[in-house]
Amino acid sequence: MYNLLIKELKLGVNPFFYIMPFLTGALMLIPGWIYFLVILYFCFLTVPNMSAGYKTQNDLIFSNILPVTKKDIVKARVYVIIILEVMHMVVAMIYGMITLRLYPNMKYLFFPPSFGFWGLCFVMLAIFNIIFISMYYKTAYKYGAATVVSITAAMLFAGGAEWLSIQNSYLYNLFKGTGVDNLVIQLSILITGIIIFAIFTIIAYHIAKKRFQKVEV
Asked: Where, by residue number, does the polypeptide cross the bilayer (predicted)?
């Protein structure tokens, strides 16, 4: 399993995708921007291009001739997605902390880079994962429909969250008002988001594992 994961990280993933978090994360420095987009770039760019690379390289056939189980093939690929997602999140958080230092008196229409906001980003990635991973492994080859549906769902969540935070006074205060300074609430939202992310991704892995067992390579 370890060797398969290293193979995925070294051969399956273009080195550029390890640089991407630092490039897209820098967009956090734009004051008052829609920061959900910073994380969504992982869904827009990294996942479809990485999937296209796997397809071009006939990675599925190559992995299938290795002395590994189908379960391990799925697990390694899911680990790669998680690693890249966490990279995007951590780098964006660091840029977000810099933004808060640069613009301490900024009045936000959209979500500021608070702990609560990052919790919502984890939920958004959870939605993306459970749809993309489970749909992709119906064939483990065709990625177009899985990409479109999962990105659409993630965008709807982000758009809905932004709209509610503007229209609902309680949510506005929680994420953009005095609630931002309540560390207990903000950390609770972050931890809840991480838990949802973990649960959804585990469910996606188990669905994908069962579906991939039925795929004829």
From this structure: 16-45, 78-103, 115-136, 143-164, 184-208
